[in-house]
Amino acid sequence: MSNQLIHPLLQEIGSLFARNGKQVFLVGGAVRDMLLRRPCSDWDLATDARPEEVNAIFRGTRQRVNIIPTGIKHGTVTVIYRDASIEITTFRTESAYRDGRHPEEVRFSSSIEEDLSRRDFTMNALALGLPGGRLVDPFGGEADMRNRIIRCVRNPAERFAEDGLRALRAVRFAAQLGFEVEAATLAAIGGALDTTAKVSAERIRDELDKIISSPKPSAAFLLMEKTGLLPLILPELALCRGVEQKGYHRFDVLEHSLLACDYAARKKYPRETALAALFHDIGKVKTRKLGGDGVWTFYQHERESGVLAGDILFRLRYPGAVIEKTVHLIEEHMFHYTEDWTDAAVRRFIVRTGEEHLQDLYALRFCDTFGMAGVEPSPELLFPLARRVEKVLQKGRSLSVKDLAVSGKDLIAAGMKPGKHMGIILNELLETVLDDPEQNTREKLLEIADNLRKRYGSISS
Ligand code: ATP
Ligand code: MG
Fold first, then answer.
1. I want to staple 119 with a disulfide (CB 3.0 to 4.6 A). Which of 125, 178, 401, 442 is the partner?
2. For residue 94, how far is its CA from the centre of ligand 1 (angstroms)?
3. Which residues pair with 105 in a beta bridge?
4. What local confidence, expressed as pLDDT, does residue 460 receive?
5. Cα–ligand 1 centroid distance for 28 (angstroms)
């Protein structure tokens, strides 16, 4: 590769190693992304220098440099040099994976070719010599990239059996790059599901996140279905295949969900919206009933979908806030606005949804609508509702208990006993005010509260 394309800092490091009689290469994803002209997030270097030698080489420069022994056991040090953070790993060869993720022992090697041979796919087994830019490509990675093919280095069955994460990486790259998975590589995934079953939830989550933020998540999910990864990792979604919903949908629930997720990815909606798009209908499998008129119904499927999505995201160790938001969006996705909604109905919709979630819920509706026919929804789809919501919000009327003209303290001052009825009464006051904002004055609310107290008082005493 022309060395004009190589970052000056990498060239500088290359010259530094050369002066010390050592080899250094840019390796892995950075080379792949450079050849594909994609932005690359991190630089990984490989060298024949041992970690202590890497240390000495940088110390000798008299530049300010910070060396962190991130993975000394694996021969990796992180070098913070002129504001860049670079992982430098001594050439390795690996053997004997017992847990399907981590090699039993790491042995250093003296050749870049050997180091490349332990990598997963040919496109990830490329190295660029520094500073000159000589491409080392022992497995035909450059040609595979030109043909847009993901292919295992050497024997695919062995590669997948060594490390179960690789199967997920293969389908993830297919979605990210729009590449095909080569036939023998694809065929080997199904034979290594036992190994993939051992991959930690966190690693699966990270791959799922990369899939749903790729240009076309459905490409990965369809490959997962074909290879058996989908029933293994997201059985709830796999079961949506063949769940027909004729009437307003052209597709079965799986196809619909994948299209909805593709739309979220295309629009770069936030992670929770994309997850909600993917899982918003999975409850249809259990709630589906065939009516006498031959039409399927799915009553309350949004609740069942919310429960299942919560289980999935918990199992994959998503942060609590992500789970909560995703489940909330799913539970609220079935709103049906009509012009005859009263202002009170609009206020109730806002309160249920939460003002801060409105945009994401609208976005989810766009995903859902796209998923019904695979056709771009009109940008005006939600204008009528959004306009009403804006109007109500502009009036600045109370939308939560804390906006009421009275507080719990006021009720206590008026002689009410603190306790569980207090919360019930405050919520009833809010209901009243949502229906009729004019009631939100201190006198009115105290009067209503007093009546409620008498009612509850007579129940409890
Ligand atoms: P991305 O950074 O987009 O996740 P990447 O290919 O750069 O993709 P990294 O995790 O940064 O992935 O790994 C860097 C390189 O290490 C890869 O390009 C590949 O050569 C090698 N590698 C990573 N994970 C594996 C694995 N599970 N098996 C074999 N080699 C791997
Ligand atoms: Mg990378």
1. 125
2. 15
3. 95
4. 42
5. 6
Nearest residue (CA) to ligand 1, atom 6:
29
- Span from the CA of 159 to the centroid of ligand 1 (angstroms): 13
Q: Which candidate, 186, 255, 174, 198, places its Cα nearest to that of 226?
A: 186
**Tens digits of per-residue pLDDT, 337-382?**
999 999 889 989 998 999 999 999 999 999 999 999 899 999 999 9
SS3 category, 139: coil
The answer, yes or no, to whether any atom of ligand 1 lies below 6 A from the CB of 94, is: no
Q: Is there a domain that residue 166 lies in?
A: yes
Main-chain phi, psi angles of 97, to 5 degrees: -95, 125
Ligand 1 pocket, 120 CB below 6 A? yes
Kindly state whether residues 58 and 172 are assigned to the same domain.
no
Please tell me the residue having the least CA distance from ligand 1 atom 25.
Answer: 120
Bridge partners for 44 per DSSP: 27, 87
For residue 300, give its domain range.
245-397
The number of beta carbons lying within 10 Å of the beta carbon of residue 67 is 17
Mark whether 286 and 383 lie in a shared domain.
yes
Say which ligand is closest to the CA of 27.
1
Same domain membership, residue 125 and residue 190:
no
Global pTM reads 0.88
Q: Which of 115, 138, 161 is the last residue of a domain?
A: 138
In terms of Cα–Cα distance, which of 19, 38, 26, 28 is closest to 1?
26
Q: Is the CB of 233 under 6 A from ligand 1?
A: no
Residue 33 alpha carbon, nearest atom of ligand 1: 7
Ligand 1 mutation pick, 120, 172, 207, 209, max ligand atoms within 8 A of CB: 120
For residue 166 and ligand 1, the question of a CB distance below 6 A is answered with yes
Q: What is the dihedral of CA 90, 152, 223, 206, to 10 degrees?
A: 0
From the CA of 103, the nearest ligand is 1
pLDDT digits (tens, 9 = 90+) for 104-141: 677 888 899 999 999 999 999 999 999 999 999 999 99
Mean pLDDT of the region 284-304: 90
Length of the chain in residues, anyone? 461
Q: Please compute Rg for the chain using Cα positions.
A: 29
Question: DSSP class of residue 290?
Answer: E
In this structure, what is the dihedral angle of CA atoms 87, 99, 207, 108, given to the nearest 10 degrees?
A: 20
pLDDT (0 to 100) of residue 201 = 98
Residue 44 near ligand 1, beta carbon < 6 Å: yes
Q: Where does 40-129 show beta strands of DSSP type E?
A: 43-47, 65-71, 76-81, 84-90, 92-97, 103-108, 127-129
Distance linking the first and last C-alpha atoms of the chain: 86
